[in-house]
Every structure is written in structure tokens, then in C-alpha cells.
Write a structure and sequence with these properties.
This protein is 36% helix and 9% strand. The protein has seven helices and four strands. The two termini are 28 Å apart.
Length: 170
């Protein structure tokens, strides 16, 4: 979701741009989760891809020590033969209790892996929306959520959204 591609709709591209605002990111993340593909679009620490929480909030100490803060899943591990191996890098040697947290984190990561690209390079990461029957993101649901959450408030998110330069289709 971080990469902006030419084949994305204009709305989706703009949504990706404003997603970088913390208020919008929290709201957006609270209403969906990731179904993993190659792991190129899912951020290891900041996206809700494991259960329904962000790893940075579940393990704040490890997040603070991580050298992989901004990496996507495919950058925080590698394929070793037929198995996926997580590679977490720290800015210093860990204390015993921090190592215990790493073990706790690794236990959550057991059997979690990205799709091997040479096997299924078209299997992309998919965002699963919690609202609606189709569980697919729609502009309508984004609008409903923004109105529900920010009605009557001076909302930085909405202000930023309307400042985005749109290309006219006419």
C-alpha cells in the first residue's frame, strides 16, 4: 500500500498519499487488516498484518531498538530453501528481558511467511476491509468513516485531503 503505482486509481493514489498522516493512518488501519502476498506493501512494524495489532504497539521496546523500523515484510526476512526466515536487526545487543520479548515476537511469527516470488509473483498483498459485506475497501466506506469520526471537528485529515491536486478527467 505504500508504493504508488500508475495502474492505481486516482482516488487510491491520493489515499496512499494522505495515509502518511498519523491521524488518517490510525483510522485507516483500525478498519482493516492485511492478507499477505509477497510482503512488498506491508510494513513489518506499522501495519496490522499479524492478528489485529501493530507490532510497534505490542512491542514498543523492540520497535525502538529495531533497525528495520520502516521495512516491509519482504525486507525483514528471506527465503532459505523452502522456508521463510525472519531477520530482525537491532541497534545494540539486547538485554535478557528484551531477548525474551524477541522470543515472544518470534513465537507469533511462526508459520507466517510471504509468498515466494518465483513461485507466485502475482500474489500481491491485499487489504481486507472490515466494513460491509464484500469486505472490500470502497470510497463510500472511507467517506462514511471520515464523517462518522470527524463530524463537527476541525479535521486536519479532511483539510489535507482537499488540498491534494486532482487531475481533471474532462
Amino acid at each position: 500500500m505504500n508504493r504508488i503505482r500508475n495502474k492505481d486509481s486516482l482516488w487510491w493514489r491520493d489515499l496512499k498519499r494522505i495515509r502518511r498522516l498519523e491521524e488518517w493512518e490510525n483510522e485507516f488501519n483500525d478498519n482493516g487488516t492485511w492478507n499477505l502476498g509477497t510482503g512488498k506493501n506491508v510494513r513489518f512494524w506499522k501495519d496490522k498484518w499479524l492478528e489485529r495489532f501493530e507490532l510497534r504497539k505490542e512491542f514498543p521496546r523492540l520497535y525502538g531498538l529495531s533497525l528495520n523500523k520502516y521495512n516491509t515484510l519482504n525486507q525483514v526476512g528471506e527465503w532459505s530453501g523452502v522456508s521463510w526466515r525472519w531477520k530482525l536487526n537491532w541497534r545494540r545487543n539486547l538485554l535478557v528481558w528484551e531477548s525474551d520479548q524477541v522470543n515472544q515476537l518470534l513465537s507469533l511469527l511462526v508459520n507466517k511467511e510471504v509468498v515466494k516470488e518465483d513461485i507466485d509473483f502475482e500474489k500481491v498483498d491485499n487489504w481486507i476491509w472490515r466494513e460491509g459485506e464484500s469486505r472490500r475497501y470502497t470510497v463510500k466506506f472511507a467517506y462514511i468513516i471520515s464523517r462518522r469520526e470527524f463530524q463537527g471537528e476541525d479535521c486536519l485529515i479532511i483539510e489535507q485531503f482537499w488540498k491534494i491536486k486532482f487531475i481533471s478527467s474532462a
